[in-house]
Amino acid sequence: MTEQPQSKEIAFPRLLDRAMRILAQRDHSEAELRKKLQQSVQRAAFIQQNEAEIITDAQLDKVIGWCQENGWLNEARFVERFIQSRSRKGYGPQRIRLELGQKGIARPEIDTAMEACEIDWSACAAQLAERKFGLPLPTEWKAKAKVQRFLQAKGFFMEDIQSVFRNFDD
Q1: C-beta separation of 74 from 27 below 8 A
Q2: Residues in Cβ contact with 116 at an 8 Å cutoff, skipping those fewer than 6 apart
Q3: pLDDT tens string 30-39
Q4: Which residues does residue 9 pair with via DSSP β-bridges, in sequence order?
Q5: How far is CA 84 from the centre of its chain?
Q6: CA–CA separation, 130 vs 147, rounded Å?
Q7: Domains of the chain
Q8: Which residues contact 45 (CB under 8 A, 6 or more apart)?
């Protein structure tokens, strides 16, 4: 009787250790953590030139549940910190919403967090425009269009961009 080599499942403590190492660096969304855990197992197998260990959905759910129960994984905290971080880096609400969606955050959760964040997006757009183009902001059409394109690429709404020029003209 010959035994076929069976792919081995990764042990819960090892998977939990990997999850805690990932979460110790920064906050993650649940979807992001799942993806990184899968990638870490595949990467470790590639480096060691072994067959990749299998992570079952039940194991992932157990690790995610443990991390949530013990406060290591908190989606609301992740979303709040992500919005604050990206707004400080000069990104607008549209771009931030898009990035959160890409990280697996549900639209209602994003909407709630964006309303609760109390960021003055018009002021952020004005500060960014001043930092990039200096004062006074351009008044001729071609230069104004350049500022508008820059702010749109950063994810600001057109109403916030227009308020920059309205407030500057006053």
Answers
A1: yes
A2: 80
A3: 999 999 998 8
A4: 54
A5: 11
A6: 10
A7: 12-69 (1.10.10.10), 75-116 (1.10.10), 121-169 (1.10.10.10)
A8: 51, 52, 53
Angle at 54 between CA 49 and CA 60, to 5 degrees: 130
pLDDT tens-digit series, residues 54-76? 778 888 999 999 999 998 999 99
Q: What is the pLDDT of residue 7?
A: 54
**Per-residue 3-state assignment (H helix, E strand, C coil) for the chain:** CCCCCCCCECCHHHHHHHHHHHHHHCCCCHHHHHHHHHHHHHHHHHHHCCCCCECCHHHHHHHHHHHHHCCCCCHHHHHHHHHHHHHHCCCCHHHHHHHHHHCCCCHHHHHHHHHHCCCCHHHHHHHHHHHHHCCCCCCCHHHHHHHHHHHHHCCCCHHHHHHHHHHHHC
* Cα–Cα distance for residue pair 1/104, rounded to 1 Å: 47
- Which residues lie across from 54 on neighbouring strands? 9
User: What does the pLDDT look like over 11-33, one tens digit per residue?
Assistant: 888 889 999 999 999 999 999 99
Cα separation of 149 and 91, whole Å?
13
Q: Which two tokens stand for residue 87?
A: 């707004």
Is 124 buried (19+), middle (13-18) or exposed (0-12) by CB count in 10 A?
Answer: buried
What does pTM read for this prediction? Answer: 0.81
